[in-house]
Amino acid sequence: MANTSTRTLRLLSLLQNHRYWPGTELAERLGVSVRTLRRDIDRLRELGYPVEAQRGVDGGYELAAGAALPPLVIDDEEAVALAVGLQAAAQGAVEGIAESSVRVLAKVVQVMPARLRRRVEALRAMTVPAGWDGSARAGVEPGVLTAVALACRDSEHLQFSYTAADGRHTDRHVEPHRLVCLGRRWYLVAYDLTRHDWRSFRVDRLTAPHGTGSRFRPRDLPAADAAEFVRAGLDNLPRPYRVEVLVDAPATTVRERIGRWSTVEEVDAEHCRVRMTADSLDWPTMALGVLGADFRVLDPPELLEQIHNWGALFNRARA
Questions:
Q1: For the residues 188-202, what does the mean pLDDT come to?
Q2: 261 within 8 A of 276, measured Cβ to Cβ
Q3: Residues 60, 70: contact at Cβ < 8 Å?
């Protein structure tokens, strides 16, 4: 059974088809009992949704004819979380739900209050898909994300304080371009007006971003898109681990599964060479695990040791 919030959204989606639903059929679609369905209907009514009921053996439910749906009752942080989650799903995070996620996101945004709708629409429009690689790590304030997204959308100069990897704090004045979610982190791609060059900034290191009110004419980004710009910058960073593996699978198959985060070279029709750079060996271990193919570790030796340790741990798993 889905959790209450998810089930309530699903129930609302079914009722929005503007058709009459027999109670037993609607309960079956939701995978709940008729009694639970009645509680969910009451919950929608408490939120202001005009759900009408017909009593009797063939009783059922429908939205009141011609009734306008009230605004979706969520706060700012919930609106951002909803947009980020559905957008990730729409990019293929889970097989088979991408199209449904797009439809749900469109419906939800439509019934949001205007203030939240503006923020969520900006976040959707100004985020460049960089492939699914899990949820973005915690630590990014929803307000920071929406403030940056709005500045990107409106071509408005943005100022913020930035903390570099070595702990140094600097004040930045930029022309924001796009947000990118990659490697479980959010990045802002922007033109730095102080350094007179393009930069990518980790959003979790931004403090107090705010628009200045002045607009700018967008510049041409020196890359195919913002995601490619961020990837190129990350590839040039010093990484403690450079992984090289021979995989017993066609290069096309391996690229489909982990090509967004690695370099895949064809050896022959049935084998390929995979290279990755990483801050830790956890991600390469997981990536190789999802391939479902035999492989040989060429470098580094520590990777093979970690894989054996993880294998021993999994073998000790109990029901």
A1: 95
A2: yes
A3: no
